[in-house]
Design brief:
554 residues; alpha/beta; TIM Barrel; Immunoglobulin-like; 2 domains; 18 helices; 22 strands; 29% helix; globular; binds 1-O-alpha-D-glucopyranosyl-D-fructose; binds calcium ion
Length: 554
């Protein structure tokens, strides 16, 4: 276990389209981000993760890349990017980018060539197969459409797309693809970026022969065949190769986005350190309210389950390193999902509670834009207000079956656009995000929930995040210390100790909307409360609803 900058700093995730618009076209851009760097510095942020800013037709909002080395026109130019990078570095902040190389856009020059004819030199950059009896080569479902295959009439073959049909999967078996990707990564590193978040990086290697999926025999229709494409042995080889070819001799990091990774297999990607991924984003926590039918099959979560997941990962990765997050651009807003947004008092209190629980665990915190002011889910009133391909496709298919109404409720709860409405900077028109009409509607609560209001209120969620980040930044024990769960059986309270050498901390939070009885043992009751989200003096008999307490024990 070594110390590293990316273990010590708090990351802030920016969704550029919705962060800050500098020219009034309603679309966030790189100059907008530059204008807000001082805000991030004030907050205590040490590194920024930018969602994709590359040239893209935006079928999946930048996750369909047309040119890996060109900036999306609406976002600015390469000169703007270089300026953003140097302005961030001047402020002592690092910057990592999104690496989306499981697939490209179908408008990428490689795919344009690839689909031209079967003997094109780029044909093998993607995954082409003849059909079976006039149907798809196998039964794999895509994340966004029923089938993961698209028929190409010109050659009468099919190409694989695990996401939309405008996101063809690259063929990592082809050494030329790997060479091209590694060269591209190296050019970005030469530009001076500090690392990558690697989009669905654990699905780049597909099982040879592309066998049908079906975890339970007799399944019909298209199935989520992750056992055939996630976490395959060759993916580990590709990552080790990437590491050697691109990372050696550079002070850069990577965090992999890895759906379908369990606590058992996660260490395969992380240990020994520096050979594959530095960190990964696991989905067990984000799937806590997903039933067997996937994310739209919504089931209730419980504090007990949440605790077993959080502490289970602390234990599973104690010889490596966790990523810590409640939110990203694909997930609903945490205060609406895991806290309470029924009224202002509880919104503020529960947002602080969630922050306390997550940010002081062992691992690197990733804060998603707007989380630090407690932004909530959005009361969309009509599918025409949505922009996300996943929700729109899901809605179309369900509406055709006459299930529009129940589907709408699911989209309100889990749809990705909840996280993608513009950042709320102040209470002026369009929340200070833009002077023009934004590309997606605003959350109507911006007159109350915004950065300016939060900066002037010392009891805001924002000030609490700042205090929490400062606490973590200034105590190595809160970064490198070991974690030990306490009161594991308590049905409402999550608690843990962090310890390093002589330093010891106790973190206690009440995840429920009710008083939680908990008699504190002598050893804990004597500690000093250094941070709390309530004004009443701390009780040794229990915690108020959504109360959070950070106690210094030694
Ligand atoms: O997400 C990958 C992923 O696993 C998603 O399908 C996730 O399960 C889904 O968004 C939950 O609704 C990454 C990106 O974060 C996402 O924005 C992209 O759409 C996707 O890859 C394809 O690039
Ligand atoms: Ca703009």
């Amino acid at each position: 276990m070594t110390n590293a900058w990316w273990k010590e700093c708090v990351f802030y995730q920016i969704y550029p389209r919705s962060f800050m618009d500098s020219n009034g076209d309603g679309i966030g851009d790189l100059n907008g981000i530059i204008a807000k760097l001082d805000y991030l510095k004030w907050l205590g942020i040490g590194a920024i993760w930018l969602n994709p800013v590359y040239d893209s037709p935006n079928d999946d909002m930048g996750y369909d890349i047309r040119d890996y080395e060109k900036i999306m026109t609406e976002f600015g130019t390469m000169a703007d990017f270089d300026r953003l990078l140097s302005e961030a570095h001047q402020r002592g902040m690092r910057l990592i980018m999104d690496l989306v190389v499981n697939h490209s856009s179908d408008e990428h020059a490689w795919f344009v060539e690839s689909r031209k004819e079967k003997d094109n030199p780029y044909r093998d950059y993607y995954i082409w197969r003849p059909g079976k009896n006039g149907k798809e080569p196998n039964n794999w479902a895509s994340f966004f459409t029923p089938s993961a295959w698209k028929h190409d009439p010109a050659s009468n073959e099919w190409y694989l797309h695990l996401f939309s049909e405008k996101q063809p999967d690259l063929n990592w078996e082809n050494p030329q693809v790997r060479e091209a990707v590694f060269a591209m990564i190296n050019r970005w590193f030469d530009r001076g970026i500090d690392g990558f978040r690697m989009d669905v990086i654990n699905v780049i290697g597909k099982k040879p022969g592309l066998p049908d999926g079906g975890k339970t025999p007799g399944m019909t229709g298209y199935v989520m065949a992750d056992e055939q494409f996630a976490n395959q042995p060759q993916t580990h080889e590709y990552l080790r190769e990437m590491r050697k070819r691109c990372f050696a001799g550079r002070d850069v990091m990577c965090v992999g986005e890895t759906p379908f990774v369990t606590r058992e297999i996660a260490p395969d990607y992380l240990v020994p350190e520096g050979t594959e991924l530095d960190m990964l984003f696991q989905f067990e926590l984000m799937d806590i309210d997903s039933g067997p039918g996937g994310k739209w099959d919504i089931v209730p979560w419980s504090p007990g389950k949440l605790k077993s997941i959080l502490f289970g990962w602390q234990e599973a990765l104690k010889d490596s390193w966790n990523s810590l997050f409640w939110a990203n651009h694909d997930q609903p807003r945490p205060v609406s999902r895991f806290g309470c947004d029924d009224n202002e008092e509880l919104r503020v209190r529960s947002a602080k509670m969630l922050a306390t629980l997550m940010l002081l665990l062992r691992g690197t915190p990733f804060i998603y834009q707007g989380e630090e002011i407690g932004m909530t889910n959005v009361p969309f009133s009509d599918p025409a207000e949505l922009r996300d391909i996943e929700s729109l496709r899901f809605y179309e298919i369900a509406a055709a079956r006459g299930e529009g109404a129940q589907t709408w409720q699911r989209i309100l709860a889990k749809g990705r656009d909840n996280a993608r409405t513009p950042m709320q900077w102040d209470d002026s028109a369009y929340a200070g995000f833009s002077t023009g009409e934004p590309w997606i509607r605003m959350n109507p609560n911006y007159p109350v929930i915004n950065v300016r209001a939060a900066q002037t209120d010392p009891n805001s969620v924002l000030h609490y995040y700042r205090d929490l980040i400062a606490l973590r930044n200034s105590h190595p024990s809160l970064i490198y210390g070991e974690t030990q769960a306490v009161f594991p059986e308590h049905p409402q309270v999550a608690g843990y100790l962090r310890r390093l050498d002589d330093a010891a901390w106790l973190v206690l939070v009440n995840l429920s909307g009710e008083w939680a009885e908990l008699v504190l043992p002598e050893a804990f009751a004597g500690g000093q409360v250094v941070l709390s989200n309530v004004t009443t003096p701390p009780s040794n008999d229990g915690l108020l609803l959504y109360e959070a307490r950070v106690i210094k024990l030694g």
